[in-house]
Each structure stands twice: as structure tokens, then as C-alpha cells.
Write a structure and sequence with these properties.
alpha+beta, Glutaredoxin, Glutathione S-transferase Yfyf (Class Pi), Chain A, domain 2, 9 helices, 51% helix
Length: 219
């Protein structure tokens, strides 16, 4: 194996945050875009959770959790002091806390708001209201700093903005208004308007065992 391999799905927020970390850390991987409704057997055999993203390292070790892949990317980056910038020691506890809040609580309500028909007895308005509470809480943090924990983004920002973006998309599709206010709107704009965004969201062909290898970043 000449490159680490990332199994990914373009629109998945967990996969987006991993690809963002790889971009910032300047790590190139072989990427395998898969269809979540028709997962290839090679992927299923490698993954215990059967969810993406997963990273297969050159030594065949498998990393299943997106946050662990982000931490791996930081450790592998050849950029000096990158971990100190994006994962500062003094902020580690707070960083993990807000990421956990996003992954365990905000994501729960986001799913039931965006995909209410998939969940039995799911009340779309109820989960929208719950999700908005997190948006407002994070907005207060961003009123004090440019990013969650200061003047530079940390892995907390990396980990959460794809989910806020998904929330925005869901609100727009349902014709809701006033769901994002300043400064969180400007915070999200930083990522969506970033020059790396095009590379981040490049549309790869679905992978199969007979596919030519594709790499991320694309260029």
C-alpha cells in the first residue's frame, strides 16, 4: 500500500471534516467515494461500524472515528507546530466538550429535523427548535472570538462547521428564515468561501475494485 486510504462520502459532514483536516495538514490519501446505499464488500470487510469515513493506514491499521482521523492527520502533518495551532493544550478539554456536544446532541436533533420522515413520531418543529438552541449557544461563543476558542480555528471549528452547514441547507430547503445570524453566519462563510472548499467538495466517481486510483486532494 503506497498511500493511506480514505473511504468517504462527499456530502457526509463527518467525512467533510476529515477531508478538511487532511487539506489543512497537507496529507494526500487515496480516496474511495462510496454509495451508502450500496456499500462495497471491501469496505464492509474493513469496517466494524459500517459507516464512513474510515481510514486504512499504510500498515493496514483501520481508524474508524472521524475525530481520531483528524488527530492522526495532525500527528502526521509535516507542517511545524500545526498541532499547537489547531489543538492547543490549554483548550483540549473545552474542544472535546463542544465536539461531543455537536456529535451527541446537535446531530441528534439535526437528523430528526432534516430527515423527519425517517424517524417514527419525529416532530420537525420540535427538533428545529432544539437545534436552534445550540446554534444560539455557539453564536454567543463566536461573539467573543473570531472562532470558538480564539483568533484561530481549532479542530472544534473543523468538526462542527459541516454540521452547521447541513443545518443551513435543511433550513433553506424548508423555506425557513432567520436561522443563522451574525457572527455564526460569517464563521460558516469563512469555510464555505474558502479557496480550499472547491477541492474539499470535489466530486469523485464512485469507487469499485476495478476503478483507477483517485487521490485527495485532487490537485
Amino acid at each position: 500500500m503506497t498511500n493511506d486510504i480514505l473511504y468517504s462520502f462527499r456530502r457526509c459532514p463527518y467525512a467533510i471534516r476529515v477531508r478538511w483536516a487532511l487539506l489543512i495538514c497537507e496529507i494526500k490519501v487515496e480516496i474511495r467515494e462510496i454509495d451508502l446505499k450500496n456499500k462495497p464488500i471491501e469496505f464492509l470487510n474493513k469496517s466494524k461500524t459500517k459507516t464512513i469515513p474510515i481510514l486504512i493506514k499504510k500498515n493496514s491499521e483501520v481508524i474508524e472515528e472521524s475525530l481520531e482521523i483528524i488527530l492522526w492527520a495532525l500527528s502526521e502533518s509535516k507542517k511545524e507546530n500545526i498541532k499547537k495551532i489547531y489543538f492547543p493544550d490549554k483548550k483540549k478539554e473545552d474542544i472535546f466538550k463542544i465536539i461531543n456536544e455537536n456529535d451527541k446532541e446537535f446531530k441528534y436533533h439535526l437528523d430528526r429535523f432534516k430527515y423527519s420522515t425517517r424517524y417514527e413520531n419525529s416532530n420537525e418543529d420540535f427538533h428545529f427548535t432544539k437545534a436552534i438552541k445550540f446554534i444560539k449557544r455557539w453564536n454567543k461563543l463566536l461573539a467573543e472570538n473570531k472562532y470558538f476558542f480564539g483568533d484561530n480555528p481549532t479542530i472544534a471549528d473543523w468538526s462542527i462547521w459541516p454540521f452547521v452547514r447541513q443545518f443551513k441547507i435543511a433550513c433553506e430547503s424548508q423555506k425557513r428564515t432567520n436561522f443563522l445570524e451574525r457572527p455564526i453566519k460569517e464563521w460558516l462563510d469563512y469555510f464555505e468561501n474558502n479557496r480550499k472548499f472547491k477541492s474539499l467538495m470535489y466530486k469523485y466517481e464512485l469507487w469499485s475494485p476495478n476503478s483507477r486510483k483517485s487521490y485527495f486532494p485532487f490537485n
